[in-house]
Design goal:
The protein is an alpha+beta fold. Helix content is 45%, strand content 8%. The chain has helices at 4-14, 20-28, 46-61, 65-76, 82-91, 94-101, 107-115, 149-155, 194-202, and strands spanning 119-121, 124-125, 138-141, 168-171, 176-179.
């Protein structure tokens, strides 16, 4: 079975392409899957609208429900706007920063690189994709992994984002990155109305 198919269907259901490969399929069929996908739907309930937005955010970071809920609970305790604090918290995950640095093509690949112990933080191997980084933390690729095909491709710039994250200082050829500062919500390339997520969890 083509493993990309579930992601394509999920992309169409959520209304956002979740991987670069999904983009062409999503553009060709920009409506939900199923026999009623093209049919105009009735006005959706407030609950369904907020639930969909939460699912979009979960999907873009490839999170389980419990992980997103814990991130929300942390965001509530911070002094800023809860929705913005939630996105910043998620963006400071190690797997998200590996993706933004251009070391991986998708969030799924970034998570795999971390769990397979190819990535270091401040010189030490870290195998938890959910590890939160702080400003001045440095991400690198283990020396023995740098000659492997995925990292040679990454070092050549194949996965480099069109717009470099301004909160990261990246040396692609050296496969290193430094978190300069915490991201601002407007800089984070996720498609989400985070206020709807806050309303979903606050109901």
């Amino acid at each position: 079975m083509n493993q990309s198919r579930p992601k394509i269907k999920r992309s169409r259901r959520l209304g956002i392409p979740l991987t670069p490969k999904c983009v062409q399929y999503f553009e060709r069929r920009p409506y939900p899957p199923g026999v009623h996908g093209r049919t105009a739907r009735r006005t959706e309930s407030n609950y369904k609208v907020r639930l969909l937005e939460k699912q979009r955010l979960r999907a873009q970071y490839d999170l389980r429900e419990g992980q997103l809920r814990r991130a929300f609970d942390r965001a509530v305790r911070r002094p800023g706007k809860t929705g913005e604090e939630l996105v910043v918290d998620l963006e400071c995950r190690l797997d998200a920063l590996v993706l933004r640095a251009g070391f991986a093509r998708t969030i799924y690949a970034a998570r795999q690189l971390v769990t397979h112990r190819h990535v270091t933080v401040n010189g030490r191997r870290v195998d938890r994709p959910s590890a939160r980084l702080q400003p001045e933390d440095r991400i690198g690729v283990v020396e023995s992994s740098r000659t492997k095909a995925p990292f040679l491709v990454a070092a050549a710039g194949a996965h480099a984002p069109q717009r470099t994250a301004p909160y990261l200082d990246v040396d692609l050829s050296g496969l290193t990155a430094r978190l300069i500062r915490l991201p601002q919500r407007a800089e984070v390339p996720v498609i989400c109305d985070e206020q709807l997520v806050v309303e979903h969890y606050s109901r």
